[in-house]
Amino acid sequence: MNLKLTGILFSSALIFLMNPAIAGVQISSTRIIYPEGVDEVQQTVKNTGENNQLVQAWVDNIDKKDQRKSPFVVTPPLFKLAGGQANVLHFISVDKTESLAKDREQIFWANIKSIGATPAELSQQSKLQLAARTRIKLIWRPKGLDKHSAAEAYKHLAFSVSGSRLTVENPTAYYVSLQKFSVDGKNVQAPKDTISAVSMMIPPFSKMVYALPDKNAKKVTWNAIDDYGNGTPVQEKSL
């Protein structure tokens, strides 16, 4: 394989991995809300490309250190998806959900991995197979926690300043996913010692600590991502 072809393949692989839409497989939403008591929750995956894709789906824990088996299964777990076609994934809870907390939400990873051939212009030069994995959050919502309260949870965040640190407290039973988060117009950065996927999520009944972009902070501005993946109205509060 010459250097020119190697460069083409490497660039194509990067594009493929960074943008699942280019890879050909799209998912119907950016998060899954799983209310306790329902038989299943469905998600549609569609192959927007022309080539066949082999699709694999599963659920695992957000924290890699947590080796416990996920309380969710996906059917079908592995299937072929022809170009232009769609299929429905069925996310089903198993008996292990009985061990989950009843007073707050919990989150997991829903994984969709697709494997397809290289772009058409490379098909005559190589049979390299490229894979892309998309991860979206699956949020387990126990009975008694309603959709309306979830939509309002971000409004109840409490903020306090201590030196160069900003503490955000979530007194609700819901995860709050911050979308815009700034102090006096300067964006607040995610903590380096947290899992990147949840660094801007405030867990139920918990606190997160962030570095202040300005020690003379006067006003915090924020909004959140709702159940449908949309941004909520912006809130402001004096510090």
From TrEMBL:
Annotated compartments: Periplasm
GO cellular component: outer membrane-bounded periplasmic space
A UniProt-annotated Pfam family: PapD_C
Single GO BP term: cell wall organization
UniProt cross-references to SUPFAM superfamilies, sorted A to Z: PapD-like, Periplasmic chaperone C-domain
Domain Pili assembly chaperone C-terminal span(s) in chain numbering: 168-231
Family: Belongs to the periplasmic pilus chaperone family.
Name the record gives this protein: Molecular chaperone
Organism field: Salmonella enterica
